[in-house]
Structures are given as C-alpha cells and as structure tokens.
Design brief:
CATH architecture of the largest domain in chain A: 3-Layer(aba) Sandwich
Radius of gyration of chain B: 33 Å
Shape of chain B: elongated
Helix content of chain A: 40-55%
Strand content of chain A: 5-15%
Strand order of the largest sheet of chain B: 1-5-6-4-3-2
Number of helices of chain A: 11
Number of domains of chain A: 2
Oligomer: heterodimer
Distance between the termini of chain B: 42 Å
Number of domains of chain B: 3
Distance between the termini of chain A: 34 Å
Shape of chain A: globular
C-alpha cells in the first residue's frame, strides 16, 4: 500500500514511517505542511493519506483543511487524520461529503500497532475509523433527533461500534452475539435511518454520518 | 427599591427587575440607554428635518412641564432633609433619581453619547445608614441643584423654542383670527400698532414666517444646549469618575492576578501528579524490561505493555490539562467553532447563533469561551433545561472606540439562578470584569433563565 504522510514533528514522522515500513507499506512521500501535502497528494495519488491535524504554516487545523480540500479534488481519497485531541465536530466535517474512506484517531492509538494498522487498512478500503473518544463524547449527548431516538440501546451500541470502523465479525465478538444478530441489528438501523436502498458499504458510512450529525 | 442598583447596560435589557442581579466591572458608573443621536445630517430630505424639529418640539413642551414638576420635587426633597434618617428622605430620593435618569437618557439621545449615572452604591443596613449614604453622596446634591437650575434652563431653551414656534404659528394665522373674532379683539398685534380691517392683518404673516424661520434654525441648537446643561450637572464629576475607575481597576487586577496564580498552581499540581508521575513509572517499567529481556522475556513483555499503558495515561492527562488552559479547537476555529464543538457534545439540545464579522482578540476569545462553557454547564447542572440557546453578536463602537461583544446563553429550565449562590456565575463575573465586561442574570423561579454577557473589544 502506498502512503503519503503529513506530520510536522520529525520525531513522530520518523516513528510513523518506521511503523508503516515494518508492516510492509510504502511511504511514498512524507511532508511537513499543508500546501506540501496537497502537492504530494496530487503528484502521488496514494492509496491513503495519513495526516496530522495541526500543521504549519498556521499551526491550527491546517492538516484537516488540506485533507478536506484534497478530497474535494479527488473524491473518495482515503484520509486518516491523526491528532493529539479529538473533536467530534472535525469528524463530522471529514465525513460530510458522504464518500466514506475517512478516519479520525487520537495519536495515542498509534501505539497499539495491530488495531492501528487495521484502521489504516479499513480506511484505505473505503471504510471509516472513528476514535472511541469521538463516539464516547457523542454518547453523552441526548440524541434529540427523531430517527436516532427510535434506535434500541442495542442498536445504538452496534452503530457506535460501526462508527469506530469495526466489521460485523468484530462487532459480534465485541458484543458476545452472533454475526447474524449483528447483521439483523444493522439492517434495523438502516431501515430506521431510511437507508435500505443504498449499497452495503455506502450505507454503513451514511449511518455513521447520521450518527455524527445528530 | 432599585435606585441604588446599577441599571442594566444599554441594548440588552429593557428594565430592572427585582429578580435581576448583576455583576459588573463598574458598579456605580454605567451608561444609561439612549436613542440614536437626533442631529440632522447633511443631505437629509427637508421633510424629515422638519419632522425631527417637530418631534423635538413635542419633547420640549414635555420637558418644560416636567421641569416645573422637578422644581416641586426638589422643594419636597429639601423639606424632608431636616427629617434625615426618616424613610421620607429615601422615599423622595427614588423619584428624584428616576426623574434624573429619564433626563440622562434624553440627553444621551440628543448628544449621541451616554450620560453616566454618578450614584455611589448604597452601603450599610437600615434606613439611617442608607439615608446617611445618600446624603453623603455628592451626586445627590448635584441632582438637587440640577432640579432647580433645570426649571430655569428648560424654559430658556426648550421653552423658548416652543414659544418661537407657537408665536410663528400664531402670526401666520393672524388674518384668520381677525376675520372670525369680534372687531374689538386681536386688533393690536405686537402691542404698539392698530390694525384696521382684515386686509391689513396680512402684514403679520411675514412676522410669523420670520419667527418660524428662527425656530427652525435654533431648535436643534437650543435642544443640544439643554442636553449639555443636563450632561454638565447629571454626569459624574471627572475626579469622582476616575476614582471609581481606579478602585475598580485595582480590584479587578488583584482578582486577575489571584486567579492566574491559582491557575498556575493547579497546572503545576496536575503535571506533577499526572503526566510527570506517569513518565517516571514508564521509565521504571522500561528499565526493568531492559534488565529482564534476556532472562525472563515474558515478564519483560508484560512490563513493555505496562509502559505503553503509562504513555496512554500520560497523554490523556496532558490532553485534559491543555483543554483547560486553551482548548485547541478555540485556537483552530475561533469562538464560534469552539462553541459549536461544545454544543455538539452537549447532553441538552443546543443551538448556536453567532453573528461575528471577524475574529476576536485571543484573550477576549478565551474569556468569552470559558464564560460560555461555565454558563452552559451551570444550566445543565442546575436548571434541567430541555433546550439551550447560545447567541452572540458584535456591535462596532462609534469612531475609534471599542466595540461591544454581546453574548446570550438562555435555557428553558426551572430558573432560580443567582450570582453569588454558587461559584459558577461569580466566576464568570470575575472572568469578565478583567475585561471591563458585564454579566446580567435574569432567572426568575420557574424559569426561563437568560445569562447575558457583554465584553468591550475590537475585532481583528
């Protein structure tokens, strides 16, 4: 898999490159600021961009903006955003084009290598990977939106795990239920959110998006 | 009685209510509200210039009549003085101050600049102490002097303007009066010459026109003159104003230094007990793992896993600390984005409506953010609301003066919030007072609650 990496701190950039290479990925370019990221994405058209939210020259959410900008030019370009902190509002912006293939994780997650690499693969394959902290922040909220209120607690749980980017098999083992039960729950979720007509992958993304938007 | 209480700042609250409590940067000097300045601008159509003057004419008549009432009020008030210490003095003070406030507001509208209230806050308990405080306040005596002066200056300015208009109108209608009245009446205009017949009475029309022209030309000037007299006597004396300002600055500075020192101590303690401790434990785990790697690889692996856990904990501690110092989303997105992020994870449905034309200065942004966050968590903790609304707008100041950021956090909970009842609202007041900001809480029992904050600042 070909990766473009955007991270301004050399220490972390080298660390990430080492991890990716250990797992056999090819880091085709590693850049340190927003404009360079856009250029690298245009030149290399990688399988996935792994981007730090905070980049020079503004040292604000430059990385996120560049990623969203790049996805406008190359729809569906897989982007995994890493950050020292997570804001659900950023997750919503990242997913708002409905194209999926987006992830938003705390940098802490990088240390847990296998799940991190699984998330990278998931996003590159067009799925989503939301940090459990984003999900937790959203769970504290009273879901006032009518469609989400009709979900049972069990369905809520499935949707939260789906938002984290887990497959049906992973959700099943996590909730100690069968995969069949998971797919029954997720069909109920799609029905309640009015997503029966869309393709499987796409509606998973749309369901997660509905979850973030509520 | 509300006369010793600060009036809520202009533009956000209409009236003082019993359940309305305020914490302000300047307790005794506040700009009362006033309508927009009423001066005719060049290029204005003639019709509206006349309408403006006719409006002022109506006000003039009212002011002259009121000035007579004011003189009576002053007389009553002076006569109650020998009985100082009786409720009568305080009772008479309230209408005097109300009367003066109305005039301040009127003058502010004419001058286009606020005429501040000069009263010192009532101190002490009981009628005697309060009456004594009222008597010691120089503003009380200047009010009284103004009431007496006003009965003369009002007549000389507004009264004169009214007389000019009425005189002009009178002579303009003179031929009509001559025609409809018996021959003996209205035959000696201006007192020194005799008119014979209606035809001759048309000679008075130019007099009427001249008087109306003088009225038209002087109406605005006379009004401004009256407003200047009011401003001179009813606004606080410069040195009193400055003394109050110095006192307020000293106390807000002390509070700011205090809270900063407290904040630094908290950060130091959090670092010491949190991230630092976790890094030490991380180092110990790694050291042990290094030693055991050869003899006992299994234990070494367990220690390495522990070390990783420690770093996750340390990062989480640091993240929480940073959020408390300056939330990253505030740096990234400014006040609006940060408040939207707050609203997004709020357990109560929250709408955000911001109308800010630019980015606020970072210190104001941070103060406003933490004030909103505090008001929000206050509402959720105590009021059990079903819905919360946060709105903000910015009004640029006239000329070079600072603009005003107004923020409103309202909820439909059960109300009863009071400044000073807990630490939350007082904390917001302290935060805002460092920026000369104000906090007004309106929260009757049963709700709804509105928390209004204002911060003078400039946009970048």
């Amino acid at each position: 898999m070909r990766i473009v990496l955007a991270e301004d701190l050399a220490l972390l950039r080298e660390g990430l490159i080492r991890i990716f290479e250990t797992y056999g990925f090819e880091v085709v370019d590693a850049v340190g600021n927003g404009p360079a990221l856009i250029k690298a994405l245009t030149t290399h058209r990688p399988d996935i961009a792994v981007v730090d939210v905070r980049l020079p020259p503004t040292f604000t959410d430059e990385g996120l903006r560049a990623a969203i900008d790049a996805r406008r030019r190359f729809p569906g370009l897989p982007v995994l955003v890493l950050s020292q902190y997570v804001e659900p509002i950023y997750a919503r912006e990242l997913l708002s084009d409905g194209a999926g293939a987006a992830g938003y994780l705390l940098k802490d997650r990088v240390m847990d290598l296998d799940p991190f690499i699984a998330a990278v693969r998931q996003v590159a394959a067009g799925g989503t990977a939301m940090d459990p902290e984003v999900i937790a922040a959203l769970l504290t909220r009273h879901a006032a939106d009518v469609p989400l209120q009709t979900l049972t607690p069990r369905e809520h749980e499935v949707l939260a795990l789906m938002a984290e980017g887990r497959s049906n098999a992973a959700i099943a083992s996590r909730m100690f239920i069968t995969e069949k039960a998971v797919s029954k729950h997720s069909n109920n979720i799609f029905a309640k959110l009015g997503l029966e007509q869309c393709g499987e992958d796409n509606r998973r993304v749309l369901a997660v998006l509905a979850y973030l938007k509520s | 009685m509300t006369h010793d209480r600060r009036q809520p700042p202009a533009g956000i609250v209409g009236a003082t209510r019993e359940d309305l409590s305020t914490v302000t940067g300047s307790d005794q000097l506040s700009p009362p509200a006033g309508p927009a300045p009423a001066r005719s601008r060049p290029g204005q159509p003639a019709g509206s210039a006349v309408a403006l003057r006719l409006g002022l004419l109506g006000q003039s008549v009212l002011l002259v009549v009121a000035s007579m009432g004011g003189a009576c009020l002053a007389t009553v008030w002076i006569f109650t003085l020998p009985f100082a210490g009786t409720p009568l003095t305080l009772g008479a003070t309230a209408p005097v101050r109300w009367f003066a406030d109305r005039h301040r507001r009127w003058a502010a509208g004419r001058l286009g600049a606020p005429v501040p209230r000069p009263y010192q806050p009532a101190s002490g308990e009981g009628w005697l102490a309060r009456a004594w405080a009222v008597l010691r306040d120089p503003a009380t005596w200047r009010d009284c002097a103004w009431l007496l002066v006003n009965s003369v200056t009002s007549v000389l300015t507004c009264g004169l303007s009214a007389v000019l208009f009425l005189g002009g109108a009178f002579y303009l209608c003179y031929p009509l009066l001559v025609a409809v009245t018996p021959p003996a009446v209205f035959r000696q205009p201006l007192g020194f010459f005799q008119l014979n017949g209606t035809a001759q009475s048309f000679a008075m029309i130019p007099v009427g026109l001249v008087l109306l022209a003088i009225w038209y030309l002087t109406a605005l000037r006379l009004t401004i003159l009256n407003a200047l007299v009011i401003d001179a006597l009813l606004a606080p004396l410069k040195h009193v104003e400055l003394r109050a300002r110095v006192g307020q600055l000293a106390s807000s500075r002390a509070e700011t230094i205090d809270s900063q020192a407290r904040e630094l101590r908290r950060i130091e303690r959090d670092l010491h007990d949190g991230a630092q401790a976790r890094l030490v434990s991380l180092g110990m785990s790694l050291g042990l793992a290094e030693r055991l790697l050869a003899q006992d690889p299994q234990t070494a692996q367990r220690l390495l896993a522990e070390a990783r856990e420690s770093t996750v904990g340390a990062l989480s501690d640091l993240r929480n600390l940073v959020r408390g110092i300056h939330p990253p989303v505030l740096a990234d997105r400014g006040l609006e984005g940060a408040v939207e992020a707050l609203a997004m994870v709020n357990p109560v449905p929250t709408t955000v409506d911001f109308r800010l034309p630019g980015r606020l200065p970072p210190p104001v942004e941070s103060a406003a953010y933490f004030a909103i966050a505090e008001a929000l968590s206050n509402a959720i903790k105590h009021a059990a609301p079903r819905r919360i609304q946060i709105s903000a707008e910015f009004a640029p100041g006239p000329g070079d003066t600072a603009g005003l950021l107004s923020i409103l956090v309202s909820d439909d909970g059960h109300g009863g919030a009071r400044i000073g009842a807990g630490t939350g609202l007082s904390g917001i007041g302290r935060r805002l007072s460092a920026f000369d900001g104000t906090l007004v809480v309106d929260s009757p029992p049963g709700g709804p609650t509105s928390v209004r904050m204002q911060l003078p600042c400039e946009l970048s």
